Amino acid sequence: KEPQPVLKRDKPWEHNLYFTVNGWSVLRDSQTGEFRCWYDDWNPDIQEVKRVGYLYCVPGRTSFARSTDGVHWRDHGWAIRASEKMVVYLGTGSVWKDVAFEQTGRFLCNYSEWRLDAAGKPTQNILFAWSRDLVRWEKCGEEGLFPVDTGGYHRYGRWDCIFPMPRAEGGYWGTWTATPLARADLSGGIG
């Protein structure tokens, strides 16, 4: 255990580094032993925090750092930037190996953006990106967008934070944060 944070805000563009169960991923390269970490940087809107009474953040970014020992980290800056369609903030994500990793050599990442829907209201959408080196990421584009399933979830609630879990028979199981229709408030739940 280290007495001080091993990753801390030390760049002029960083605001509120966000490490929660759904806001970061760490992988260790099985060949080199290097640790790689993706994490969120949220920019708190102080006026909105005072109004609603909890941490409310505006457009953020996903950042990337690497380490040889898990204690001393080298920050590489932004891994995923928000698109021009984002209106509220860039949400959290996870990183995992493509199910066809042996053939593609690709890692996948999910993230979310709040965008305006056809009615002009912000709604959260899950998007994906891929990488072969875990440093440079290519967005999968609009065809990979995972929109809110309004058959079971609130259109204007939470819809982010996919957490993939490997299945013994191959592929993945997954959960994500979503607001079920049966929930009275829009604060979230597990999808």
Which structural class best describes the helix and strand composition?
A: mainly beta
Count of helical stretches:
2
Calculate the terminal CA-CA distance, rounded to whole Å: 34 Å
Low-confidence stretches: none
Query: Per the principal axes of the C-alpha atoms, what is the gross shape?
Result: globular
Give the number of DSSP strands.
12
Explain this structure.
There is one protein chain. The protein contains 2 helices and 12 strands. It is mainly beta and 191 residues long. The strands form 3 sheets. Strands 1, 2, 3, 4 and 5 form a 5-stranded antiparallel beta sheet that branches. Strands 6, 7, 8, 9 and 10 form a 5-stranded antiparallel beta sheet that branches.
What are the SSEs and their pairings?
Elements: E1 16-18, E2 24-28, E3 35-44, H1 46-52, E4 57-67, E5 73-80, E6 86-91, E7 95-97, H2 101-104, E8 107-116, E9 122-131, E10 138-139, E11 159-166, E12 172-178
Antiparallel strand pairs: 1-3, 2-3, 3-4, 4-5, 6-8, 7-8, 8-9, 9-10, 11-12
